[in-house]
Give the backbone structure.
Amino acid sequence: MIVLKLLGITLLFVAVFIYDFSSVEPNKKKERAAIAVITFTGWVVAVMLLFAPGLPGPTEWINQVTKPIWVIFYPEG
């Protein structure tokens, strides 16, 4: 069952990648690279959540990273 889900996620991301990548002009290399990196990152997060559904979401990761900064600005709470 997980193999089918992985295949579905992969096919979905490939379809999104092909659609987005083909809509950008070939001479815009940086935009194409950005599309590739963002799509690949999204695929990695989706696969990680498929195999370990208890992982915290991306917003919780950002909260953990920025928590020390918020303590400096708001020491009372």
Helices lie at 2-23, 29-51, 58-73. The chain has three helices and no strands.
